[in-house]
Amino acid sequence: MQLLKKFNEADRTDRYNNKKSHWPKGSITVFSIACCVYGGVRIGYAIEQIFGVNPGPSICAIAILLALFQRFSTDAQLDSVVYRTGVRISGIGVGLLMYGTPMIVLSDIVYAALHRHVLALHFRAWMILIGTLLAIGIVAGGVLHAAHPQVVRYEVDLRRNKAGEAKTYRIVQLSDLHVGAVVGERLTRRICRETEALHPDLIVFTGDQFNHGYVDECRDEHEVAAILSTLSAKDGKWAVLGNHDPEPGDPALAAFYREAGISPLDNSCIVLDGFNLVGRTGVVSDGERRVPLQQLLALTDPAKPVVVLDHDPMGIPQAEDCGAELILAGHSHQGQFFPYNFFVGRAFPKGYFHGLAKTKNTVSIVSAGAGVFQVPLRVGTDSEIVCVDLTI
């Protein structure tokens, strides 16, 4: 394997990078560089005051390189251990920048307010270093937290007729794994271990199994597939695709699914013992190759309730209009980390961001996702394995 080998665009289909840019290219990069310079200068000053050496220029250079690498990695993917390691390290660097900059600003504000009343030696320098250490602690905790998905349980009654005998049926939903440069074998193995312990009747993947639109970004796609193949459920493992996944006809995706024992449910449905399972593929905002839900419901058993798998929660209104009893979605990551989750939460309509909601006769469950995207940390949110106990 070459040290840096860019994938041939003709050999793969990439739905993510061939779409509109998901990141403002100029303003965020310039702002990030400014924060790198500010943080490096302030930390260098603090260390010089206490220890007599100023590593500020080196800190600035390293921080800028990490920020630029992270920005670069959102557009270009390379088949390289160096690249994959760089994505993870630069993602942690982004976390340090995101939490370190406000901490240093806060330390400067505290100093400005208290410096006339506090006579301690190097008070300003110690405030900056304490803020920096707090940011490091937040990021370290966020990295560890992201690696330990939590089981979230819901109960949903799907019975149209409450009379008669009822039985319990368990679905485990795994959404937004984003296996690739950041998520690999270790987290996949942990997710599978937790899932197996739930003894599901059905396992569903609600999109963004992959990180950047192609299978080969996985550190070892064959190892990840082998781990996923150990998952077992009475009614199998079914998947729909999200905006970060390859196209449904991608040969590498088909091979991965075969190896992992996952069955695609792209704009189609299957009839199970107690309900219809309908899978939708095609992101709502793009609408590409997305079959209308009403058309898919024509293929179902009308005597049985309908469960819809849809990556994007913006598909919930259609499920409600069509009378589906349950829709499982993901996509939002619950914002993944504070304060981004605050702003992302306000970009989604009420009930579409995270958790369980009920409108009309439809229950919707939006997962925060079992994995992470690009930045390997969770702060203020959990990586989730969703366990849904149905009464049918």
What oligomeric arrangement do these chains adopt?
single chain
How many structurally independent domains? Answer: 2
Summed over residues and divided by their number, the pLDDT gives a mean of 89
**Structure class:** alpha/beta
Radius of gyration: 23 Å
CATH hierarchy class name of the largest domain:
Alpha Beta
Architecture overview:
Helices cover 39% and strands 16% of the residues. With 392 residues, the protein is an alpha/beta fold. Helix 2 (56-73) crosses helix 3, helix 5 (185-197) runs parallel beside helix 6 and helix 6 runs parallel beside helix 7. The N and C termini lie far apart (51 Å). Residues 1-24 have low confidence and may be disordered.
Attribute tags:
alpha/beta; 2 domains; 10 helices; about 40% helix
